[in-house]
Amino acid sequence: VFHPAFAVSSVLLALGSFCLSGAIFHVRRERQIKFRTWLMWGLVAGTLFTAVQTYALWAISPSERGANEASRGVRPYIMVLCTLHALHFLIAVIGLCFVTVRAWADKYDHEYHWGVSVCAAFWHFLGVVWVAVLAVIAIAL
């Protein structure tokens, strides 16, 4: 059974994906204020996702930390999958921080927004991976 924090983090991941799509939409039309606002909301969603995901990993970890408890069942594999996803997502949030700082320095416009597009594509890809991780969790538990 899923921990409720996974549902919250899934919503935050989808919200961040929506925000980055909005940022790309506005930068292509030279709406700099809206572009930066959408980027900031995406960064907030990403930061909250990381926090909620950290809590979820802590909540599903075994209460006893011995070698025998860590090697029983599918829970260790789920922990590894979720941790790897969280680490990749942390890289995405760091990239989004970099892109956001550059956006506030007027480095992106309708002709050059490659960094924003790559950041959004990586985020969307991590969203697809997250759905796969949730499917594995649903099957395993």
Please give a quick description of this structure.
This protein is mainly α and 141 residues long. The chain is built from five helices and no strands.
Poorly predicted regions are none
Order of helices and strands: HHHHH
Mean pLDDT: 89
Distance between the termini: 6 Å
Describe the biggest sheet?
none
CA radius of gyration: 17 Å
Q: Roughly what percent helix?
A: over 70%
Q: What is the overall shape?
A: elongated
Tell me the total number of β-strands.
0
Strand content: under 5%
Structure class: mainly alpha
Number of helices: 5
Notes on the structure:
- There is one protein chain.
- The radius of gyration is 17 Å and the shape is elongated.
- The longest helix is centred in the middle third of the chain and has 30 residues, at 75-104.
- With 141 residues, the protein is mainly alpha-helical.
- The mean pLDDT is 89.
- The chain contains five helices and no strands.
Descriptive tags:
141 residues
List the helices and strands and how they pair.
Blueprint: H1 4-27, H2 32-60, H3 67-70, H4 75-104, H5 114-140
Helix pairs in contact: 1-2, 1-5, 2-4, 4-5
